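WARN  no MSA supplied for this record, continuing single-sequence
INFO  ligand: magnesium ion
INFO  echoing inputs
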Amino acid sequence: MKGAKSQFVCQQCGAVFAKWVGQCTNCSSWNSLVEQVLSDGGGAGAKSALAKGKASGKKLDFVKISTIVPSDAKARLLTEFEDLNVVLGGGILMGSVCLLAGQPGIGKSTILMQICSEVAKKHNVLYVSGEESAGQVKLRALRLGAESERLSFAASTSANDIAKTIESGEFDLVIVDSIQTLAMDEISSAPGTVSQVTNCGNLIIRAAKATDTAVIIVGHVTKEGTLAGPKVLEHLVDVVLNFEGDRYGGFKTVRAVKNRFGSTNEVAIFEMADKGLKEVQNPSAALLAERTNTDGSVILATLNGNRPILVEIQALCNKSNYGYPKRTASGFDLNRLNLLIAVLERRTKLKLADKDIFVNVVGGMKLNDSAADLAVAMAIASAVAGRKLGEEYVVFGEVGLGGEIRSAFRADQRIAEAKKLGFKHAIGPATIRDKFVIPMKDLRTTLIKYVR
Ligand code: TYD
Ligand code: MG
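INFO  complex generated
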């Protein structure tokens, strides 16, 4: 029978199968395959072109690269947040499509309404929501003081309608909140599935490019931090911004994980206030303001993107009541914590097998810095010994499996930040030649000297 052909696509990872299976062999998720009927043009037509082995397209119109006008010469829309502009590579580029990804409730709609409010002072802006009604969005706008005449709102979940509206060219910036609620008429699968998200995304991106409209698309992420449903969208857009942090209080960071028009090393740090998000100018001072020096508390000089930041690492050790000790980390990788505990046990003869260990990075920060090792190890040792580290020290350095302390990148920036906040010394790797740093070669001597 030569009827309509179909294939099965995993809605988690996008792998394609000829037959249905219960578990995707590519990403191991269960019940994630959805049948897709291939249209005749895609199936049979493509095959015949392949069989002939002959190109059926036409010759490209190419131009000398010296004559192309760089897109950077195009206008950039500036937001009210200076750091966010830097993260974006100097503002939102006209015609660019940006994906803002974050957990539900972190403040995506809030920050976008604030961006709209600022951009709408000079440009036409449209906010499309598939999640909230006009009344709900208005409430938020009132709270944030977004009252411009040039800011419009529409409630829609139809990708076709949104693309058509973008194509009208009436708007300079369009917000789509969120991609997971959108659906296309031509596709039968539910909103949020791979085929819906990819095709809706494509439709919107094409409309944006055709009319040079800047578009920001909201994408929800799961608890594990991956884009809910499809990761495919990340390949299609120009900029991917990750909105991370604690949903309840604490700092939130926006960083670019992909940016076709700028660096991916910059971060913007925010705090949620009663009138929306505010940029935090001096995060180190804010993070250390409430500190009381106890045992188990160590100040780490870390980097968040390109920005040096001082954060407090806290560790708590209790005698375990069960055979299997509990280890918990908030803001720090649990595998890394287990590794450090193993190194501590083996290389410093600290007894940890019968102790529950809890590690917390204060302020909701998520550490992604190998040089955090030494501070975490010292915090644990300090908690076990019940001895606190002096007020005047910051700590940084990577710890190897042999218990050796390894170098940290951008040490000069870490040192400068520590000096700025009035610290007297840094305990760090021996490779650094700076009077401020007390050079340490291995974990054991460091612990004996400072916390035991
Ligand atoms: P929201 O932006 O709707 O999150 P998302 O779109 O990412 O799902 O809201 C995030 C939270 O912020 C919400 O719980 C309410 C709170 N909030 C404030 O604290 N202050 C404010 O001014 C606003 C607008 C929201
Ligand atoms: Mg929202």
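The CA atoms of residues 166 and 207 lie 6 Å apart.
INFO  checksum written, moving to next record
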